[in-house]
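Lab channel / #folding
Pinned by the channel admin:
"Please post every new chain as: sequence first, then the structure tokens as a reply. Keep commentary short and put observations after the output so the thread stays searchable."

First post following the new format, from NK:
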Amino acid sequence: MRWNGEWREFSRCRKELNNLRSLHDKNFSSLIHSKITQEITNDPGGTKTNQKTSTNIEETSESQSQRTVRCMNCEHEITNPAFAIEPHEHTFRNPAGFSFHVVCYSDAPGAADVGVPTTMATWFPGYAWSFAICMQCQNHLGWWYSGKDRFAGLIASRLIR
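Reply from TO:
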């Protein structure tokens, strides 16, 4: 019975996340549109601005991908290597017998915290865990841990590092 309650909570949180993602996508699209419109307005011919804008977008995307940790499923930015905490990597086995190679970060802005934290079968004594899922594709990436501080333990094989 406890599982049914957790599943309902997970489903509710997933719906909220989809609503937030939709709002974020709309805001981001309008911001990009405003920036491009502003640059085109500053260059009446439009030729130099369009070339410059596309080059800047390509350069930014390439440099961002080199210094970010992304979701393996959809390539959404999850965190930054600078947020890595030590000890950084661990391998654990859950009660069902599945092993996970986990990498720890002090923050993971691209991973949503889903569910009610629990200390049941926690891998870090003194910390409660809840699910960490990708904010874009909702793929399970690992767990958020809360205790004396808060951090994300993310499954290494589900990330592009």
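NK: Residues 2-66 form one domain.
TO: also worth noting, The helical segments are 2-42, 47-66.
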